[in-house]
Amino acid sequence: PTVTDLYEAIMEGAVEREADARRRIEATAQANFAAQTQTHAAALDLMEARNAADLARRLEAAARARFGLAGAVLALEKPGPVPFGWKALEPERTDALMGPDGLHWLGQAFDGLNLFGAGEPVVRSVALIRMAPHFPGEETPRAGLCAFGSSEEDGFTPVMGCELAAFIARVAERMAERWPILN
Fold first, then answer.
1. Which of 39, 50, 89, 112 is the most exposed place for a label (fewest CB within 10 A)?
2. Which residues of the chain have pLDDT under 50?
3. Which of 101, 124, 98, 102 is nearest to 111 (CA)?
């Protein structure tokens, strides 16, 4: 081969690598846009909730239908009543799961999580987002979390951003604060 042939081969390889990189970037951008669109639609779904139980049901439905997840749970620490459809957590359980200063945790599901009820066996990875809703009639906010479960081991990983999950958790938290917890 001549020098020209080698140069053309190198350039063709560079052009192909650049085209491949551009395709990957475009695919990532499209996936991000789709996730943002589904997140905004899910937020609107949550805003239609009529009470705290309906909020939990709508979150679960949105997680499954819009994001293909195994489930989603709203959880609140005791003491005190916990809304119907929410998971009751023992005091300090949020800190035990996420650390006292942890705002979120993404990664593999682990033994003792006990958030997803009958769906727990299919959950392979989770996103846990700290919440502190301040319900009407209560003096202080209560510790809790919004949990999303994926049946895929790499559905949630520590290197992922959690902005969209945190957004949904904040919407759920603010919506929950509209209603007193009924015993």
1. 112
2. none
3. 124
